[in-house]
Request: fold
Amino acid sequence: MAEDNTDDPLDFINNSSGELPDGIPPDLVKLLLNEIVRVKELIKYYDAIPDGAGQLGSSILNELVTEAYNSLVNYDVVLMEKYYALLQNCD
Reply:
């Protein structure tokens, strides 16, 4: 399913002229952000499960997303790679 750029929540990366600190590949940042967006959609799914049956899954995924954001904010490449791998396995 192809999306146009108006629906892309990460379009600002493609249009950004800012540079990342040395050692951080821009592809890793974009890949991690894409996974964060995907997992945030999964969180909505878990939250919608009746009778609170999805609360544990939602809490775990929220924690992973928070830590993934922190790795981006702190420019920690090792943690970015770790959370990218972890988020890829979320379903």
